[in-house]
TrEMBL record:
The lineage of its organism: Eukaryota, Metazoa, Chordata, Craniata, Vertebrata. Gene3D superfamilies: P-loop containing nucleotide triphosphate hydrolases. This is FANCJ protein. Residues 1-230 form the Helicase ATP-binding domain. Residues 12-26 have a biased composition (Basic and acidic residues). It comes from Vidua macroura (Pin-tailed whydah). The gene is Brip1.
Length: 234
């Protein structure tokens, strides 16, 4: 039978309620789950959104979560190797500067082209970035805004597996539908999400700082074990 729960069935605008709920006749809240579709790479998201365009669900409210590497359009930040840090500094107004693109987020997220009956219907990252450049509005934060009313959310695996990324992106998977494309790659992704790499020079620098702390009797009982770990790794 026809779909009755998601917004594509009625042709109406998606529910803007952050909890994405609808009321049942008896007054209880009925949770309508989102579909989180995880892929191994950003490139695969483009392929999947292209396939979505060919289905009867091409007008379903959607969004694509991706890193600033793919969606930042700020002329300085986008060409930096520290995009995340520079973006945060601009948003916090450090050094008296701010990001004009961030202030235009609503212009982009509410644009008719990204709405269910819009020009693009199912769209990909390139469509979002292109529209963001035209409107001088941030695609990165617009994609996050669109998640509130989206029925389907595309993102790389680590957005779903890494708890820190989930928290930073406000992703709550409780009672939602999660689809993992090519799930045999999950082990590697899960391993990476709880791994961290350090260089020998970083270890030596850390040891020198810890030496200073211990020699100056600064919280010795905490710093001595850390120094021992650095020494053993070196």
């Amino acid at each position: 039978g026809p779909c009755t729960e998601c917004s594509c069935s009625s042709g109406k605008e998606p529910d803007k309620d952050p909890s994405h709920t609808k009321k049942k006749e008896n007054g209880d809240r009925l949770c309508v789950p989102k579909i989180f579709f995880g892929t191994r790479t950003h490139k695969q998201i483009t392929q999947i959104s292209r396939e979505l365009k060919r289905t009867a669900y091409s007008c379903v409210p959607m969004t694509i979560l991706s890193s600033r590497d793919y969606t930042c359009i700020h002329p300085v930040v986008s060409n930096s190797s520290n995009r995340n840090e520079m973006c945060v500094e601009l948003l916090e107004g450090k050094h008296g500067k701010s990001c004009s693109y961030y202030h235009g987020v609503h212009k982009l997220s509410e644009h008719h082209a990204l709405q269910p009956a819009g020009l693009y219907q199912a769209w990909d990252i390139e469509d979002l970035v292109s529209l963001g450049r035209r409107l001088r509005a941030c695609p990165y934060f617009a994609a996050r805004e669109l998640m509130v009313g989206a029925d389907i959310v595309f993102c790389p695996y680590n957005y779903l597996l890494d708890p820190q990324i989930r928290d930073s992106m406000d992703i709550n998977l409780k009672d939602q539908v999660v689809i993992l494309d090519e799930a045999h790659n999950i082990e590697d992704c899960a391993r990476e999400s709880v791994s961290y790499g350090v260089t020998e020079s970083q270890l030596r620098a850390a040891r020198e700082e810890l030496d200073f702390m211990v020699n100056n009797n600064i919280r010795q009982k905490h710093h001595e074990p850390l120094r021992a770990v650095c020494c053993s790794l070196i």
